[in-house]
Amino acid sequence: xxxxxxxxxxxxxxxxxxxxxxxxxxxxxxxxxxxxxxxxxxxxxxxxxxxxxxxxxxxxxxxxxxxxxxxxxxxxxxxxxxxxxxxxxxxxxxxxxxxxxxxxxxxxxxxxxxxxxxxxxxxxxxxxxxxxxxxxxxxxxxxxxxxxxxxxxxxxxxxxxxxxxxxxxxxxxxxxxxxxxxxxxxxxxxxxxxxxxxxxxxxxxxxxxxxxxxxxxxxxxxxxxxxxxxxxxxxxxxxxxxxxxxxxxxxxxxxxxxxxxxxxxxxxxxxxxxxxxxxxxxxxxxxxxxxxxxxxxxxxxxxxxxxxxxxxxxxxxxxxxxxxxxxxxxxxxxxxxxxxxxxxxxxxxxxxxxxxxxxxxxxxxxxxxxxxxxxxxxxxxxxxxxxxxxxxxxxxxxxxxxxxxxxxxxxxxxxxxxxxxxxxxxxxxxxxxxxxxxxxxxxxxxxxxxxxxxxxxxxxxxxxxxx
Length: 467
Fold this sequence. Notes:
alpha+beta; six-stranded mixed β-sheet; 17 helices; 12 strands; 40% helix; 19% strand
């Protein structure tokens, strides 16, 4: 008789004791040239992230030159007084670094990631780019051509086209927020190296800039390193710049951007609401997540799972420009509160009807405790994973600087989210998405969807021609 073989199993791993976690607290300081520095030592993070924020907002762009901030941002990596564009790119590659830059309503941001062992070289290259950018005629001309080539592709993208139309509808024509962030074909075509340099000289200086540095600084004399690199950048003293308040019209209405033959309709429904300085923000984040922040949200349950109209619909709040309230109580900041997704063309009307039904039901019945608990777990419980990298921490700290928030804001936000109740979250999301104060943009076939949309009674319906 053959004996049966036996197996010895290793003990099943057990979960360890949960350790308390909080968003990292930075140290704040100032270099001799006036540059503000936030540093955050993160042991084990051998890829250091650096964010440099420049007080060069889109609203500061000269009249008729929308997009000059974007061209300037892209031109920072196209050569300095020490290196040509090709040499600068090669130097970045040699030290294993990446350098990106972009312009948005709050200002221009440069983002560097570099191995800790090459931090001195990486910071030196960024410092050279800020201190003495070449802005060569040929390079600026190439960047302008590239940007002009991008615009038709953006207009052909339904989601980008919807975003462009919503900004145009919400904000007055005199507001920079009403126009594309990176400029139009007409404005970009007028940008040259002289315009880029003039914008740089007027708005880029260390006294109004902030650098955020996050990573493992073991064995690094960061003070000396910053002084030798970013500290060598000079410029004129800071001058106060008035920030105009954000004005928006959220009268309920519908705009159809006509795309004859489109098999889907892109939806973008939005209005302008409170920014992160408002005490309602944590409850608004929580309620908006319950409405459309995940696959199990109310909007997805109805429009995707029950009706099959869409692959997914999302509700979100995105800060456009956030400014601390003035002494008189007024605020110049604002956030875009929006619902976005796409549905098949024949079901555009029914999908919108069901979406409005979800909003009305939410106002009448409120959120459930279960919805609130799931949202808190998803938003707060996964935060330690979200901030595993130095780049994620640096980006959030940079956001706080741009929005004039205290350094402990993110840590406090998670505490407030965990403490927010179902009633508060319900009130916040209902106030964020009032059924009669939403601007709806639909990119689709007007001939097929206009009649059904008009029958919903959610606002006057206008049709515009797609470019």
